[in-house]
């Protein structure tokens, strides 16, 4: 991690100075807002993957200045905090969050089994620092196993991991992710988790990926998995045809195919107000991929994040 710089210097160099006025949002407002109708707003954390061009203090200051309610720390290989350095660096990252007015709540990891090399160290350190939720890494389907066999094996691993989570008082979540990974379909995750009933391992529900895989039937999957949901992910996409082939294009929130109005209405109906991680996976000069050097100005990234954050809060309030 590069050496921290003074906050005033950071604000000047990153073009954050005066950005609050320009974008009309409160400076260092790290508490959930109230919205019309008496509903508490979603607790929206920015995924730190998109701020890996900043050190911990800069990241935390930027997230607070933009108006997020927290940061979902990337604690994984090529992340903001490396698993092999978690004992040294995670306390520094959490201290930076607290200095900016946040309480640590979420992180994203590569953890998949209780007996992996860094699992216990990562989870123990996080739990001691007050982090309450973490996202697991992904599983793949081996060529030499049937799908039911693989899911049965994963279910056993998740059960063991849930016991470790319970002993540490930290909750894990497996994200539904479109593509060839295990769990692209919500029914797979339901099968994986159906015997894990101690409340310490659940699902991180991603509406973007659910829409990609479920089309117009994502509501069925949401209804099925809702008792297991403990965190959410927000992002958007659309299909585009390029060179005769249909391809996924990630978009800012509200500019794609995700029906956020219908989704937010269901979340309110189900009283699902859990911590949220917001992802910005459209073109942001490399910030979308977690690069440490980006080809656009920090101001461009911050403005895009603020636009998405405002849109989410508007859609939630109107749903």
From TrEMBL:
What keywords is this UniProt entry annotated with? Isomerase
Which InterPro entries does this chain map to? IolE/XylAMocC-like, TAT_signal, Xyl_isomerase-like_sf, Xyl_isomerase-like_TIM-brl
Q: Which PROSITE patterns match?
A: TAT (PS51318)
Q: Name one GO molecular function term.
A: isomerase activity
Q: Which Gene3D superfamilies match?
A: Divalent-metal-dependent TIM barrel enzymes
Q: Which residues form the Xylose isomerase-like TIM barrel domain?
A: 61-281
**Pfam families from the xrefs?**
AP_endonuc_2
* UniProt keyword Isomerase present: yes
The protein's superkingdom reads: Bacteria
Under what name is this protein listed?
Sugar phosphate isomerase/epimerase family protein
């Amino acid at each position: 991690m590069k050496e921290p710089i003074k906050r005033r210097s950071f604000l000047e160099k990153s073009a954050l100075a005066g950005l609050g006025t320009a974008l009309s949002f409160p400076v260092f407002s790290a508490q959930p807002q109230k919205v019309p109708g008496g509903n508490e707003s979603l607790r929206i954390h920015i995924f730190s993957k998109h701020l890996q061009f900043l050190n911990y203090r800069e990241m935390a200051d930027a997230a607070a200045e933009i108006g997020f309610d927290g940061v979902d720390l990337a604690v994984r290989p090529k992340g903001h905090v490396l698993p092999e350095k978690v004992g040294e660096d995670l306390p520094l990252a959490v201290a930076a969050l607290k200095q900016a007015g946040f309480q640590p709540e979420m992180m994203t990891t590569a953890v998949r089994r209780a007996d992996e090399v860094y699992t216990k160290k990562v989870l123990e350190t996080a739990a001691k620092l007050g982090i309450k939720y973490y996202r697991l890494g992904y599983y793949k389907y081996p060529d030499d196993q049937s799908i039911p066999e693989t899911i049965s094996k994963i279910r056993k691993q998740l059960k063991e991991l849930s016991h470790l989570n319970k002993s540490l008082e930290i909750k894990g979540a497996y994200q539904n992710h479109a593509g060839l990974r295990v769990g692209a379909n919500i029914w797979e995750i339901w099968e994986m988790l159906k015997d894990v009933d101690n409340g310490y391992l659940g699902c991180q529900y991603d509406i973007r990926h659910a829409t990609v895989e479920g089309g117009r039937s994502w509501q069925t999957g949401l209804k099925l998995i809702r008792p297991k949901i403990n965190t959410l992910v927000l992002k958007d996409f659309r299909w585009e045809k390029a060179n005769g082939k249909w391809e996924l294009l990630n978009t800012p929130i509200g500019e794609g195919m995700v029906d956020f109005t219908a989704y937010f209405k269901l979340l309110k109906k189900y009283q699902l107000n859990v911590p949220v991680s917001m992802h910005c996976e459209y073109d942001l000069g490399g910030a979308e991929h977690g690069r440490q050097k980006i080809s656009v100005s920090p101001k461009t990234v911050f403005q895009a994040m603020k636009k998405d954050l405002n849109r989410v809060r508007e859609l939630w309030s109107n749903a």
